[in-house]
Amino acid sequence: MVEWKLGDILLQKTIESEESLRRIDKALSACPNLAEARADRGRVLLNMHREQEAIPELLAAEKANPAEPSTHFLLAQAYRATGKSEEAKAEMKSFSELEQKARNTAAERASQAIQENQTAH
């Protein structure tokens, strides 16, 4: 987990993609089923313009957590860059639907919190 987090930090700061990839690879060697690390590895590979290599990583992350919108967005980017436009469109559709669902859920929670706050007074 430590190696993955260090790789994730480097990725978030867009510093040294090679070092980020090295750390994430080390994390995946120790824990191959760490879905978050798979997604981050795919993102690093996209940043490095290694889209073809990113696709299997992102597919593994998607399989582990199909409701994560960002993975679908990254897959759409990878598919588009490799000329797979139909797959890219399908992933963008999934991304949009999941993002909308997440926004609706957040709005419902906010509305419930406001109602609970008003009834408490």
Describe the structure in brief:
The protein is mostly helical and 121 residues long.
Task: Provide structural commentary.
The chain is mainly α and 121 residues long. The chain contains six helices and no strands. The protein is globular. The termini are far apart. Helix 1 packs antiparallel against helix 2, helix 2 (17-30) runs antiparallel to helix 3 (35-47) and helix 3 (35-47) runs parallel beside helix 5.
Structural class: mainly alpha
**Spatial extent as radius of gyration:** 17 Å
Q: How helical, in percent, are the residues?
A: over 70%
What's the β-strand tally?
Answer: 0
What's the arrangement of secondary structure elements?
Layout: H1 2-12, H2 17-30, H3 35-47, H4 51-64, H5 69-81, H6 85-120
Helix pairs in contact: 1-2, 1-3, 2-3, 3-4, 3-5, 4-5, 5-6
Structural features:
globular; 6 helices
